[in-house]
């Protein structure tokens, strides 16, 4: 890919040809607030907060929709730009119930971040409370359209990334809002509860139900790990407080899932803290299962496998892989069965 150079706020930066001004600025650590743009969604140009001045072009330009050009000169912090951004953010703050003190998304809300960056403490416009009933019908997601800023990110995520095509914009004018199917409650719609919309939402309009009240962003530690539910190897962040998982999000910009997760990967983490979950190996002694250390359990297993192989032959042993293990783990199991045990009796629980 061809590399180009442009000047942003007096700083010469290099970026890949075809990138937007916003993408080029982010690559160089230059903050330009935005609400509708996300790296995994198409160029939106709806929120207008990311406006900048570009030498040679009239008026203000939407940086997420203008391609960076070689030799381009961009200004992101002029008085004109800042005043325009402030007015737009204040309009968003006045267009719904953005109660940051009690909002579950406080601390990870992009509208809150933009207001803080611009020094906005309150909106200069009358606040319009839409008074839309909060939708609790989904088993995993709470929809509060009073906090929706109509950025379209949830719609694009549902239609183009997850390809479930549940969400769309409905009605017109002041009544325009995001709807599920033909304006059904989410729990009664065709939603498959993948949570793509929750991860892409920039405000508190879509939040995970199980995480409500469990902890603020600054109280939570993020632990990167691999999803245990299949062999694809989706990367996820465990949000941990007091040594307990309170929610899960996909890791953005990382293969193979690029932030997306299925319903099991995103919401099926309760088993980790299940009270009846086995936490240590168990060995049957005198007809009773008793807890054992890992070394004892491994030695016992190796001994029994060797005894069975010597007495009945290697083909008396079968190895079954697990769909909840990684491809690498299943490959090691297969090599162990064929090389150490000496049998081709290998199967997989997900085989059709």
Report on this model:
It is built from 8 helices and 16 strands. It is of the alpha+beta class and 352 residues long. Among the domains are: 3-77, Roll (Ubiquitin-like (UB roll)); 222-277, Single Sheet (N-terminal domain of TfIIb), CATH 2.20.25.90; 282-348, no CATH class. It has a 5-stranded mixed β-sheet, with helices on both faces. A 3-stranded antiparallel β-sheet has the order 10-11-12. Strands 6-9 form a two-stranded antiparallel sheet.
Brief overview, please?
By secondary structure, this protein is of the alpha+beta class. It is built from eight helices and 16 strands. It has helices at 21-27, 79-94, 110-117, 153-161, 196-200, 263-267, 294-312, 327-341, and strands spanning 3-8, 11-16, 51-54, 61-62, 73-75, 141-143, 167-170, 177-180, 206-208, 221-226, 235-241, 244-250, 282-285, 288-291, 319-321, 346-348.
- Number of beta-strand segments: 16
Helix-strand category: alpha+beta
Give the mean pLDDT. Answer: 94
Name of the level-1 CATH class of one domain: Alpha Beta
Radius of gyration: 26 Å
Q: What is the strand content?
A: 15-25%
Strand order of the largest sheet: 2-1-5-3-4
The number of helical segments is: 8
CATH architecture of one domain: Roll
Order of helices and strands: EEHEEEHHEHEEHEEEEHEEHEHE
Major sheet characteristics: 5 strands, mixed
Range of helix content: 10-25%
Question: How far do the termini sit from each other?
Answer: 42 Å
Overall, the morphology is: elongated
CATH topology of one domain: Ubiquitin-like (UB roll)
Poorly predicted sequence stretches spanning 5 or more consecutive residues: none
């Amino acid at each position: 890919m061809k590399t180009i150079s442009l000047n942003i706020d007096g700083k010469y930066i290099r970026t890949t040809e075809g990138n937007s001004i916003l993408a080029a600025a982010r690559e160089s650590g230059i903050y330009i607030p935005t609400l509708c743009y996300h790296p995994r969604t198409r160029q939106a140009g709806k929120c207008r907060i990311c406006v900048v001045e570009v030498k040679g072009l009239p008026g203000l330009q939407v940086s997420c929709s203008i391609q960076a050009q070689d030799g381009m000169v961009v200004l992101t912090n002029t008085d004109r730009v800042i005043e325009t951004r402030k007015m737009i953010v204040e309009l968003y703050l006045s267009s719904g119930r953005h109660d940051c003190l009690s909002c579950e998304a406080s601390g990870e809300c992009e509208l809150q971040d933009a207001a803080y960056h611009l020094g906005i403490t309150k909106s200069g416009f009358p606040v319009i409370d839409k008074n839309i009933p909060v939708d609790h019908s989904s088993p995993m997601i709470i929809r509060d359209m009073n906090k929706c800023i109509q950025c379209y990110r949830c719609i694009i995520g549902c239609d183009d990334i997850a390809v479930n095509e549940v969400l769309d914009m409905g009605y017109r004018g002041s009544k325009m809002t995001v709807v599920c199917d033909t304006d059904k409650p989410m729990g009664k719609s065709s939603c498959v509860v993948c949570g793509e919309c929750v991860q892409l939402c920039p405000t508190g309009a879509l939040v995970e139900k199980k995480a409500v009240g469990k902890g603020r962003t600054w109280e939570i530690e993020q632990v990167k790990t691999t999803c245990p539910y299949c062999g694809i190897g989706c990367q996820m962040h465990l949000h941990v407080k007091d040594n307990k998982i309170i929610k899960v999000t996909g890791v953005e910009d990382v293969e193979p899932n690029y932030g997306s997760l299925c319903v099991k990967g995103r919401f099926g983490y309760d088993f980790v803290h299940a009270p009846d979950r086995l936490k240590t190996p168990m060995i049957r002694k005198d007809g009773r299962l008793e807890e054992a250390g890992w070394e004892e359990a491994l030695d016992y297993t190796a001994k029994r496998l060797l005894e069975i192989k010597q007495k009945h032959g290697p083909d008396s042993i079968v190895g079954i892989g697990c769909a909840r293990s990684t491809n690498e783990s299943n490959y090691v199991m297969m090599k162990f069965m064929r090389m150490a045990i000496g049998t081709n009796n290998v199967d997989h629980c997900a085989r059709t």
